[in-house]
Design a protein that fits this description.
The N and C termini lie far apart (95 Å). The longest helix is centred in the first third of the chain and has 51 residues. With 368 residues, the chain is α+β, with helices and mostly antiparallel strands. The protein is 30% helix and 18% strand. The chain is built from seven helices and twelve strands. The protein has two domains: 76 residues; 273 residues, Sortase, Chain: A.
């Protein structure tokens, strides 16, 4: 009986110490309110961190399961099947005015490795992998989605659940069908601080805060290609540029890279690629670009370079027929004067000196 009474007295004393009580002086009441407020904030914060951690763990586990299944299914596809799918001809999508009607449509079958994924989510459209030359695991390795807008997979994962990391997804303008795809496929993904999804994409930025040497392009040199499979075709893309740019006119000129899906002709294509080369922070003479190449654009958010909305974007072109998918990175070099935006120039006392890259990087380019 005395033990029960003692315990009760202890709880009462703790309550009186922590909770505003009748008879407390004003200063004591304020102290308790501040303490309780801080305790509530701490509990809520820890709950959010715990929830995010558990959600990220579940998401990572699910992504690893999907990757293992996808790559195992790829390994099980016969060499003959792989060759057929990769070499299957499709209409030329570079010329918007001629486009689909000038070429016979080829109804390409869905690759076998995607069929299980489609059964789970019919909005699956592809798979994207960036594999380093010295790592035993991919740096980026995820399923890619596509729907009729660019909002759904910002905050929803493959399983249809709400998720801060969302999913990689293709711009809804870039229709990928059994007949073909556009000349430029734009893929979006979140820049996750924990490194998932496109969180590692800014590692290509040799002008980043963590880069003491702006000439250090070692990340590009160990990750020069992208493997991107749509439902109908598997391809290797060779990276030819990467940039940081703004999306708000208040910060300077806006390069709307995400608006270009097809090209009206060679001059349209060349000027688009020239704008990319102006802004790219590195070049590789082994990876030139020419009209007719299919492009792949990877886009994510960027932070910390002026009070404006930024993007970091990587550009690649598809390996050409008969061309080796290997890339010689020995001659790659940093761009000493990439084009940025007005706010960057003001903040970092920087000036763009104009278009000076080697014209051999863009085959057939005759501009200034």
């Amino acid at each position: 009986m005395s033990n029960s009474k003692t315990k009760g007295n202890i709880f009462v004393r703790i309550a009186k110490y922590l909770i505003p009580w009748k008879g407390d002086k004003p200063g004591e009441v304020i102290r308790k309110i501040i303490f309780l407020s801080a305790a509530i904030v701490l509990v809520v914060t820890l709950s959010i961190i715990l929830t995010d951690t558990l959600q990220r763990a579940r998401t990572n586990s699910r992504d690893e399961d999907l990757a293992q299944k996808f790559h195992n299914d790829v390994a099980n596809v016969s060499v003959a099947d792989k060759t057929f799918h990769m070499n299957n001809s499709v209409p030329d999508r570079n010329n918007e005015s001629e486009g689909e009607n000038s070429n016979p449509k080829v109804q390409r079958p869905v690759l076998d490795q995607f069929k299980p994924l489609l059964e789970q989510n019919p909005e699956t459209i592809g798979w994207l992998t960036i594999q380093g030359t010295s790592e035993s695991y991919p740096w980026i390795d995820y399923v890619v989605m596509q729907t009729d807008d660019n909002d759904k997979y910002l905050n929803q994962n493959f399983d249809g659940q709400k998720s801060k990391s969302g999913a990689l997804f293709v711009d809804y303008h870039d229709k990928i069908t059994p007949e073909g795809e556009p000349a430029n496929i734009v893929v979006y993904g979140h820049n996750m601080a924990s490194g998932e999804y496109f969180g590692r994409l800014p590692y290509y930025f040799n002008y980043g805060f963590s880069q003491e040497d702006k000439n250090d392009i070692s990340f590009y040199q160990t990750h020069p290609t992208i493997q991107f499979s749509t439902l109908y075709k598997s391809s290797t893309y060779k990276i030819f540029g990467a940039m940081m740019l703004n999306t708000e006119e208040e910060a300077g000129e806006v390069f709307e890279y995400y608006q270009k899906h097809n090209f009206s002709g060679q001059s349209d294509f060349n000027e688009y690629v020239a704008e990319i080369l102006d802004r790219s922070t590195f070049y590789n003479p082994d990876v030139d670009v020419k009209y007719g190449d299919n492009l792949l654009t990877l886009s994510t958010c960027m932070f910390g370079y002026g009070d404006t909305d930024l993007r970091f974007v990587v550009f690649a072109r598809e390996t050409r027929d008969g061309e080796s998918p290997e890339v010689d990175v020995s001659r790659a070099y940093a761009n000493p004067n990439p084009k940025f935006y007005d706010l960057y120039y003001k903040q970092y006392n920087y000036t763009w000196e104009g278009r000076k890259w080697d014209k051999s990087l863009l085959v057939g380019y005759e501009g200034e």
